[in-house]
Design brief:
Strand content: 5-15%
Strand order of the largest sheet: 2-3-4-5-7-9
Helix content: 25-40%
Structural class: alpha/beta
Distance between the termini: 38 Å
Mean pLDDT: 89
Number of strands: 15
Number of helices: 17
Largest sheet: 6 strands, parallel
């Protein structure tokens, strides 16, 4: 498939012009429009509005001009819902939806609030975002496909029905992966950073995007564009690494891969969560670096994602003292409108991070939604109460607190993104976990394996015993199977010990008598390891364990380089 055309940079002028024209058309469905406030949008001496049928921006503006107040408000809301089906839910899921939105089912939530999209949520092992995952509605690919079809059937009855309904999820790969069974599992972003091959990254993410599209998911809250400037456990291996230039190339590759498969990419978490070790799922992290450091360190991957055509950017609950001290970026017009749109030139959809996270819950849901839109967001993600957010937005629109042109601008951007995703053929479910897709993941995983101590590429001697820290039986079994397939004899005990450590592990989880210690997440723990051979895969995916087995068997050379600096260890011990 070719890449989805039309960069958000290039559509900005048309969207702004058509939005300004349409605010008067929308005014007939509510109060008189407020004066059009200038947005940070590129200008041209002469702008010719395209035909509504010519391009996504024209179709979006034409549709926005027909929408009632209630439909406009609904288009900027993207909550989660309880239940693995759109129309049939358990009593527990119905109770959850009643508390969240005053309805029983996801389909009823879409109809009542005229929603523009829904996020699919779920739990995964070692997930640092689990604090705002109140439920799960992803079980397996067939169930996800049936759920998304039901959601779209409900949305198709709305006034905004001609624009495809947004179904999003956090499919980052690595520790944050919502759909894990029956799909091709890529190695983590940090593994891709270690491989340092954007072409491999693009190919792998195109495979992943194709599988998401087959299941009916058209928006991925990925890739993570945060530079790992601190040893953050909440970002960690979700980042492509500590080098802004290398991370930028990886972000661009992931964006291009996803969007060539018809899935919108949302680079996150602007303006850069990797510059603080604090967790915004618990507090407001303070990013205290000077503006020059933001420009040099935090912003390059976001610029690269924007230049690659990313349709969306996710804002973060971060207090960036050099730009707008005391105001989380989610609610900062200086950061989202002046910097992201004005300076970085982004004209696509800005999406909040979860509004059910503590930093956003300092305000009631309606007030928080209004503040987020006024700052420059276009989609309100995971509000803790859908009814209150909807009512708050509608009241603010009608009393002038939320200027009509501001809401119409957001809706037009959202609809433009939807129409850019429209009319794409849906891939067959048979593409899921297919041989070509597994090969793309395997190539990336193999290029990531890094040797940090020991003689490069030497096979382990004798039979091998695989051990892990607690709770990693599945990973141990995967490596055991891969080693056996590679011709290495594995014994329950007494062999050359290969010890695996992963997310959340520290020095206490190391094994002093291990001949080989392998880090399957960030490699920092290896600084304390005494094993004569140290390896890093940065990931515990099936592809990563297969790649590791090849190195341990002496059949593959570990060509990766650590994408983060390590005290007392080189980026690789394989030279020449």
């Amino acid at each position: 498939m070719g890449r989805v055309p039309i960069s958000p940079r290039r559509t900005g002028v048309a969207v702004a012009a058509l939005t300004a024209l349409l605010t008067s058309a929308c005014a007939g469905q509510g109060q008189a429009p407020a004066p059009v406030r200038p947005e940070a949008t590129p200008t041209a001496t002469t702008t010719v509005a395209p035909s509504a049928t010519d391009d996504p921006a024209g179709r979006a503006a034409a549709l926005a001009g027909t929408l009632a107040d209630e439909d406009l408000v609904g288009q900027v809301l993207m909550p989660y819902a309880y239940g693995s089906s759109a129309t049939t839910v358990t009593p527990g899921s119905a109770a959850g939806n009643q508390a969240l939105a005053g309805v029983d089912t996801p389909a009823e939530m879409i109809a009542k609030y005229r929603l523009g999209g829904l996020i699919l949520v779920g739990f995964s092992a070692d997930d640092p975002t689990s604090g705002n995952q109140s439920t799960t509605n992803v079980d397996n690919p067939a169930q996800v496909q049936k759920l998304t079809a039901g959601l779209r059937a409900a949305a198709g009855k709305l006034a905004a029905g001609p624009a495809p309904f947004l179904v999003g999820t956090d499919q980052e790969y690595g520790v944050v992966t919502r759909i894990t069974d029956g799909v091709t599992t890529l190695p983590s972003a940090l593994a891709a950073g270690a491989a340092d091959d954007p072409a491999r990254t693009e190919a792998a993410w195109k495979a992943a995007g194709t599988e998401l599209a087959a299941m009916g998911v058209n928006l991925d809250f990925a890739p993570v564009a945060d530079v790992l400037a601190t040893r953050s456990t909440v970002i960690g291996s979700r980042s492509f690494g500590a080098d802004p230039k290398r991370a930028a190339a990886q972000v661009a590759g992931a964006v291009q891969g996803l969007q060539s498969a018809g899935v919108a990419a949302s680079v996150k978490h602007f303006p850069g969560h990797g510059l603080s070790a604090a967790d915004s799922h618990q507090e407001v992290p303070v990013v205290g670096q000077p503006r020059a450091e933001l420009d040099a360190t935090a912003f390059p991957p976001f610029r690269a994602g924007i230049d690659a055509g990313a349709m969306a950017v996710m804002s973060a609950h971060l207090d960036v003292t050099a730009v707008d001290p005391g105001t989380p970026a989610t609610f900062s017009r200086k950061l989202l409108t002046d910097v992201l749109r004005g300076e970085l030139g982004f004209q696509g959809v800005v999406i909040t991070d979860g509004m059910n996270m503590p930093p956003a819950k300092r305000y009631p849901p309606g007030e928080a939604a209004v503040k987020a839109l006024l700052a420059g967001n276009d989609l309100i993600l995971m509000t803790p109460n859908v009814g209150q957010a909807y009512d708050g937005l509608l009241a603010a629109l009608r009393d002038g607190t939320l200027p009509r042109d501001r809401l119409v601008a957001s809706v037009t951007r959202v609809l433009t993104m939807k129409f850019r995703l429209a009319d794409r053929p849906t891939p067959a479910m048979s593409t899921l976990d297919s041989a070509p897709h597994r090969a793309a993941a395997a190539a990336l995983a193999a290029a990531a394996v890094t040797q940090l101590r020991g003689k490069c590429g030497v096979a382990v001697s004798g039979p091998v015993t695989v051990t892990t820290s607690d709770g990693r039986d599945k990973t141990r079994a995967a490596l055991t199977a891969a080693l056996t397939a590679a011709g290495v004899r594995v014994v329950p005990k007494g062999g050359t010990r290969v010890h695996l450590v992963g997310y959340g592990d520290g020095p206490k989880d190391l094994a002093a008598d291990a001949a080989v210690t392998v880090a399957m997440d960030t490699p920092y723990v290896l600084e304390k390891a005494t094993s004569p051979t140290l390896l890093a895969t940065y990931s515990s995916s099936r592809a990563s364990m297969t790649a590791l087995a090849g190195v341990l068997a002496g059949k593959a050379r570990p060509t990766g380089r650590s994408p983060v600096p390590l005290t007392g260890l080189p980026a690789t011990s394989c030279t020449g």
